[in-house]
Amino acid sequence: MLSRTADNLYWLARYVERAEYLARILDATLRLTALPLAYVGAGNEWQSAVATAGCADAFAAAYPEANEDTVTHFLAFSPANPSSIRCCLESARVNARAVRTALTVEMWDTINGAWLELKKWSDGPSSRQDFSSFLRWVIESSLRFDGSAYRTMLRNDAYWFSRLGLYIERADNTARILDVKYHLLLPAIEPVGGPLDYFQWASILRSVSALTAYHWVYRENVKPWLVAELLILRDEMPRSLASCYENLVQNADRIARAYGRQGLAQRQARTIRARLENSRIEQIFQEGLHEFLNDFIKDNNQFGAAVTQQYLV
After folding, report:
1. What is the spatial distance between Cα 113 and Cα 117, in angstroms, rounded to a whole number?
2. 267: which of 49, 54, 80, 223 lies 20 to 30 Å off by Cα?
């Protein structure tokens, strides 16, 4: 496969996953800001949404204040923000068109249809309810694309490169949302386990479709350390860091076997996977959740760079 084709497939999957992640973050923020102040706390939820998306500096340069109007426009519709939902879906379509023959009919119809329907939202939402409908549509479009890829693609290098992009993006997103929640959402005066703590951690679980899974696994009230364990160390949780790297190791190894050569990307993926397998949530909290997640995000970025250097340039 040409490196350019692999690059298009890799970034197609990343952009679709990123658009879904932003929609989930905005949906969770809308849910929190709809609660009474006693449950929301003193923090600025909209500012935390920008921080979770990794766009704080770009946002601060464009807007003087983080509120519902500015944040929703910047993260969902702004053409000036390359990581907005609109730009992600447009970039995904550009990458898909470049490798049209490497996609199945169902994949192309899903991404092209999403791009055409996106034009209906060019003026932005007319109300909160309208915006919620838009976010649900983004999430559903991403799920349809992922489902069509899983159900219709040959298990060859095209599929494996797209899976690398998806799981690298998903791991980064899960780590960021956990890190921001831990540091920005809960005020210092709020006791752990209080009503504010419960609703905010529950909103994080909803944002990654994990609230039901949490109760199936733990069968008790939402507790921060158990949420962190579910989203970091539990292999059975599809969006956990451990699950992402289990899949990344498998797909990187499949590419290596297909091309008859291993490299830095495979070694880094196995190193990160081993670190997650050997970690315990008590140890992570003792050493600092923020430090652990920061290190993971850096390692994940380095793995992405290794994949790019080894295969995509």
Report:
1. 6
2. 54
Q: Greatest CA span in the chain, whole angstroms?
A: 59
Give the CB-side neighbour count of residue 13, counting CA atoms within 13 A: 24
Cα 156 to its chain centre, rounded Å, is 24
Is the pLDDT at 107 greater than 70? The verdict is yes
Q: d(Cα 34, Cα 68) in Å, to the nearest integer?
A: 11
CA 292 to chain centre: 18
Q: How far is CA 229 from the centre of its chain?
A: 17
- For 53-87, what is each residue's pLDDT tens digit? 888 889 999 999 888 889 999 999 999 999 999 99
CB under 8 Å to 2, separation ≥6 — which residues?
none
Q: What are the extents of the domains in the chain?
A: 1-152, 155-313
Where are the alpha helices (H) located in the chain, listed in sequence order?
A: 3-33, 37-40, 45-52, 56-62, 68-72, 85-98, 105-118, 128-152, 157-180, 195-207, 211-218, 224-232, 241-259, 264-277, 281-287, 289-307
> Please, what's the b/e burial string for 42-77 (b: 16 or more CB within 10 A of its CB; e: otherwise)?
ebbbbbbbbbbbebeebbeeebeebebebbbbbbbb
Q: Is 200 helix (H, G, I), strand (E, B) or coil?
A: helix
